[in-house]
Structure formats: structure tokens, C-alpha cells
Amino acid sequence: MYKANDDRYENAVVRRAGNSGLQLPALSFGLWHSFGDDANYGDSEKVMLKAFDSGIFCFDNAFNYGPSAGAAERMFGEVYRANLKPYRDELVITTKAGFNSGLGPYGNFSSRKTLINALDGSLKRMGLDYVDVYYSHRFDPNTSLAETAEALDSVVRSGKALYIGISNYNAAQTKEITKYFNELHTPFVVNQASYNMLNRGVEDDGLIKTLADEHKALVAYGPLAEGLLTDKYLNGMPDDVKIHWSNEFVIKHGKDELVKKLNQLNDLAKNRNQNLAQMSLAWLLHDKTVASVVTGASKVNHLEDNLKALNNLDFTNDELTEIDKIVKE
């Protein structure tokens, strides 16, 4: 029978989401990849429990994570019920709806019916009475933001979520929906967005500043740009490399140019006694608006390697300037 490590918080790095009471581990455990229908339960259980034993108490899910949709939530639910249920009060469990959450017209986006129906299914799959953060996974161009905000507010009022988040909303969309949340007194705390050293969209758009001004937090997903910010491509990129839509533009000047930049960043990481992936994770946390970075790991050794990023979170101004110079030139 599983018993959590008594020293799990001894070296944990915990950050606050804006000025809210929500606190998150600097690294959260994401189930976006590797936890679908083909996942091995034993391997999944081992890496999730290692994460919790290492001070990672936030598990980030979504209705569509799999494949197939709902599979990652089911896998998490099995591990939770078998091992983690006694620790529910310590855990921050999140999920989202808006992508492929069912057949028919209510299977996507952020209408009231879509969001409320999806959460009921997610809670059932995970074996939970509530989630700690419930996200609208994407902006709905055909539904008023007021309706989306009111739906999310009602989820909190019903006791099915403690806090509310949004994901993949730009600065203008975030600013507008925040107005509605403020009027409703909804505990809206965080926007989860794609962000990494190569992908500065949240900076260019002004989203980081908008969140800071509103005393909200950013949770960064895709911190390693689908493996680009690891040692995987330092010797070149194959023609068939697949990149998530949120990071596709980083190859706009060609793969050879990108590989050159990756090697320059890797040299800088070596000077910090980190590998490229570790520096990439640490870099995201240099901005206090970033409350947590969502990382995935299918193997324990990958998780342990990511955790080493927390050993050196300090950057000099010269290092930050050099990173910007390499990436933006």
C-alpha cells in the first residue's frame, strides 16, 4: 500500500498564483501526452507517485487528453483512487474543457452547456467530488464571454471547482473576461498558455503584463517546445519532425538556423551547470507572474531530470540578455 514520502515538501518550490490563496508547485505534472489508451498503468502509476513524493502536488488534466478523449483522466483516476485519495486535501487537481469533449455541436468550445456537461464527465472519470481549478480550454468566437464567465462562476457556486482558469486566451480576451469575473466575484486565478524561450507570444501580445496588472498568474505549458528545447536536435532536425501548432512558427527561418540557436542556448546552459531542458524550465520561472510550469514525463528518470531545473532558478541580467539575443536575432 502506497505511503507518501514524509519529506516530500522539504525541497519543494511553491509559488503563489497572483494575489490569490492558490499555491502551486513550480513544476506541475501534466498528463497531456503518454497517458492515453495505450499507456502502461504500472509505468504511469510509478511516475505520478514519484512526482508527488518529490513535492509536485499539482496534476494537470483536460477532457481531451489521451488519446482517446477522457483516457488520461481515467488513468489519473485509477492512480488517484488506488494511492492518492488519502492526500486529497494536499493535491491541486485541474482539468479543462473546450477541445473534443464529445460528439455533436456541444463537443467543442466554451458554451455554458459544454463546460458544465464536460466537468460532470471529468469528475466521474477521475472519481472526484470537485477539481481545484477548472479551465475553459479555449476562447469561443461564437459565444459571448459573459456566458462563458457566468458558466464558470456557476461551477464554483455548485461546489464542483474551487478556482477558475482560462487557457489559450489572448490579452484582450483575458482582459474582457476578467471584467465579468470581477463583477461576479468569481475566484479566477490563472491563464494557462503556451510559453517557452522560443515562443514569446504571451510577451508580444501583452498577456503577461495583463495578468500581472490584474494580479493573476500564468501557468506555462509546452515549456520545451515539443522537445526542441532538449538535446534531441542539437545535431540536426529530421524532415518529419512534428511540432505543436503553438510552436510551429519557430522554424520559420529554417531548421538549420534553429539548430544553430539551440546549440548557442545549450552552451549557455552548460555554463550554468544545466542541460538545455533544465535551463528552459528554469528560465520560465524567472518571471514571478509565472506560477507554475506544466511538464510531462512518462519515465521516472525524465521526471528526475526536470526536477533538477529547480536547483538553479537564478539568472543574471547578462544571461537573460544573451538568451533574448540568441532567440530574437
Automatic annotation (TrEMBL):
Keywords: NADP, Oxidoreductase. GO terms for biological process: methylglyoxal catabolic process. Residues 27-327 form the NADP-dependent oxidoreductase domain. SUPFAM superfamilies: NAD(P)-linked oxidoreductase (SSF51430). CDD domains: AKR_AKR14A1_2 (cd19089). GO terms for molecular function: oxidoreductase activity. PANTHER family: HYPERKINETIC, ISOFORM M, L-GLYCERALDEHYDE 3-PHOSPHATE REDUCTASE. Belongs to the shaker potassium channel beta subunit family. This is Oxidoreductase, aldo/keto reductase family protein. It comes from Lentilactobacillus kisonensis F0435.
